[in-house]
Give the backbone structure.
Amino acid sequence: MQADKKITVVFETSVLAGEHSSRGIGTYARLLLEHLEGISEIEVHKSSTMSKTDTIKPDIIHYPFFDLYFDTLPINPFKNKVVTVHDVIPLIFPEYYKAGIKGKLRLKKQKLALRSAAAVITDSQASKADIIKHLRIPEHKIHVVYLAANPSLRAQDEDIIKRVKYKNKLPDKYILYVGDINYNKNIPQLIKMMKFIEDESVTLVCLGRNFTPQEIPEWQWIETQLALSDVSDRVVFLNNVLTESLDELGAIYTGAQLYIQPSLYEGFGLPVLEAMQCRTPVVCSRNSSLLEVGGEHVVFSEPTAEDFAAKVAEVLSWSKTRRDTFIREAYKWSQNFSWDKTAQETATVYKKVLKLNHEKSE
């Protein structure tokens, strides 16, 4: 390939439509695409804007989302496919992510399609190990490219925080969780934590569109734990805050006493960086990719209600000097992650694929 020739990339954008668009995978695709378009060596074409009459011959096709149990990756002979696999959590906890007969059949097809990929991008070393173990992808094909918080998400000033608290009926002192309610998120232990927190002026705020009554096991676990722990009056569910409303989201992060990531397992754990970027201290489960994302700048906990409560109490007891120092160092750590870097490292994967295939053809 000529050194001055641009790399033509077709970027699969179906993940930007429908329910995926507001989830983490939609955010990933949107921000990566935006920053890839800023790299002069790359010429990006969105699959959604291409017609059947287009005569583009791409060097790379990038599929930014891989679903284990749905047909997100076609089996085709194109040799320069790059696929992002964020995690394989359903295969780590199969008893809680039932695939069914059709899902198992699709998983076989998805595995077959993935093995024909020239490269797999994933979010963490933890996910890389999982992909090797559960999907049998050779290690040399897998490239770890870290994500980053949205650069437009930032700490907000006191006036905005007060306005957002009033709008959402938030208490003065709260612990924040942002995310979904899937099994791996460990929400029942998070709720149970509240009965061990002695300061009754502290409330738990859970933000996410799935924190709403629904006929699924995950919500039933939440309702059961609320009743068992008798903490319904100390837990607030926010399901109407749009994650793209960055000033509002930033104010909710900034206004929290601390952020907590209670997960049993994560492929990355983006809210940890979001909280750091909004200058809010983080308590975080000691497992999986969270060890990589948190570094030395979170308070690690075992993923149990009792240990969460102990670590939360520790953070709440900090002096202003201790808190300010911790927040400052964590913010600096969060700035090691950037979407410019994510895009540049993704472009490096494209180049490696093309170089390898060029060498094979010689």
Notes: The mean pLDDT is 94. The radius of gyration is 22 Å. Residues 339-361 form the longest helix (23 residues). Residues 7-148+338-361 form a domain with the Rossmann fold fold (CATH 3.40.50.2000).
